[in-house]
Amino acid sequence: MLSEQGISKVMAQRYVRIKTTKGQTYYGLLQLRRSVQVLDAPPWLQGQPTDLELEPGSYQLLAPCAPTKIVAVGKNYIEHAVEMGTTVPEEPLLFLKPPTSVTAADREIHYPPQSQRVDYEGELALVIGEHCMDSTPAQAQGKIWGYTIANDVTARDLQKKDSQWTRAKGFNTFCPLGPWIVRELSAGARLQTFLNDAPEPVQSALLNQMAFSPEFLVSYISQVMTLLPGDVILTGTPKGVGPMQIGDRVRVEIEGIGHLENKVVARSLPVSP
Ligand code: MG
Fold it and tell me: In terms of domains, do 115 and 206 share one?
């Protein structure tokens, strides 16, 4: 059996962003006993460990980065494109989710009253480490600092109703992200989504079944807009998308990262005077 020190050597380092009970926000390294070694800057901006170590219970996890934008890709798995009644586009299909849609692991997804059909979409998220403009795919690979898990929550009825996807994809809490970032990921890792306590996943695919690879996507997007450190790319969802109900718990898992779980709650609109 491995010693704890041995385990920490083989377990991927987990990069987190936290808020302390005193209200301070830090980037840090999550330790085996769930304490957090605080960094003096975001790790992609060469943040170094400080002497400050926070004990479990003295902080809460935030989403692991604070992107200026979230660029998402539609229909990037063949079988998902088919279930949507289409094919994979010849070029990546891009859309944006606002930074205000981001929420953390274990926080609530707010089901908006404007929709009667809100779907989960389990996805691999890429975190950009440095300024990226007009990069080739080979250069783009070096700009991907790490990987985390996302749920591209979608009001499916509003997506069909509106010709633009901004409303359907843009509600507050519609981008659960986390719980942490890892630097390395196996190309053949499995992505799975589970609803409540059902043992069978509703989505299950290998990341290498994507139509357009992560480095191709980052290169393609960088020829449209400059990607900045901490920006996030959502790489598309595999087949098996479906609705969530108020009270449901949804869990997206990626081998080598961990799992991202969120509960769905009702959001009511303010009462008009
Ligand atoms: Mg999606």
Answer: yes
For ligand 1, a single-atom ion, the residues with CB < 5 A are 121, 152, 237
Going by pLDDT thresholds of 50, 70 and 90, the confidence category of residue 268 is confident
What does the pLDDT look like over 242-261, one tens digit per residue? 999 999 999 999 999 999 99
Distance 111 CA to ligand 1 centre (A): 17
The pTM of this model reads 0.94
Give the mean model confidence (pLDDT) for residues 204-218: 97
Per-residue pLDDT tens over the stretch 116-140: 999 999 999 999 999 999 999 999 9
- Identify whether residues 31 and 143 lie together within a single domain: no
The per-residue pLDDT of the chain, averaged, comes to 94
Q: How far away, in angstroms, is 235 Cα from ligand 1 center? A: 7
Q: From ligand 1's centre to the CA of 69, what distance in Å?
A: 15
> Is 30 in the same domain as 161?
no
**236 Cα: distance to centroid of ligand 1 (angstroms):** 5
Query: Tokens in use for 263?
Result: 């509960």
The closest alpha carbon to 92, from 226, 240, 233, belongs to 233
Alpha helix (H) residue ranges in the chain: 4-10, 78-83, 137-143, 156-161, 166-170, 214-222
The answer to whether 203 and 79 are in contact (CB under 8 A) is no
Q: Residue 53: which domain range?
A: 11-61
Q: Could you tell me if residue 98 is inside a domain?
A: yes
